Amino acid sequence: MANAAAKDCPDSALQAMRVHDHYCPGVTSGVLLAEYVQKEIISPEQDGLFVLSLVPWCKEDALTTLLNATPGKRSYGVFYADREKTGEWPEPLDKSCTIVFTKQGEKWTGHILGFDFNRAKKMYGDKKFGFYVLDKLYADLWFLDYLDRPEKFVDNLGIIALKKGESPKDFLRPDMEVLQKLTP
Questions:
Q1: What is the pLDDT of residues 113-132, one digit of tens each?
Q2: CA-CA distance, 130 to 125, in Å (whole number)?
């Protein structure tokens, strides 16, 4: 985190790292997803936000912190999928990691988001130091130059329009067939 601060990392990203308790590419992916949501999805006309994580990893700490969407505020939920089966999900859910729902009036709309680590790895190359920690540090510091360009790594894979009266919180009830309901 000190290396990030020395490179003039935005305070918001440092806050997400502090909540996560360390700096890693996973929390950086959450910072970039949150930046994308703030730039491309959230608008003043909306009166609700709900984040549903389909494939949780370190990004959750950044998303809850930077979007102020927490389980306690009933604005964040996590679906703990079997990672080995996510590739069998229907498109575009097979490439997704998070769905960000916004509410306008009585209607919720979900944006299916994916984060492409492979694209990032192609961009920063095969730089290897032979030590896992240094490899991660290199990736972390490389990502700092792209925190204002989340569209390089975040893909909006589709839209889910919920029916009037439906809420994204409904997907987290024990009796729900989540994948069937989420498929656009």
A1: 999 999 998 998 878 888 88
A2: 15
Judged by DSSP in three states, 7 sits in: coil
If you write DSSP's letter for every residue of 54-72 in order, what string do you get?
A: SS-STHHHHHHHHTT--GG
Question: pLDDT by residue (tens digit) across 64-110?
Answer: 999 999 999 999 999 887 777 777 777 888 788 899 999 998 899 99
Range of the domain at 14: 2-182
**Residue 169: CATH number of its domain:** 3.30.1330.130
Output the CA–CA distances (angstroms, integers) from residue 66 to 31, 59, 84, 87, 94, in the order listed: 7, 11, 29, 28, 25
Structural domain count of the chain: 1
Helices (H), ranges, 91-171: 117-124, 132-144
Token pair, residue 170, equals 């409904």
Residues 6+ apart with CB under 8 A from 122: none
Which residues, in sequence order, are CB contacts of 3 under 8 Å at separation 6+? Answer: 23, 137, 140, 141
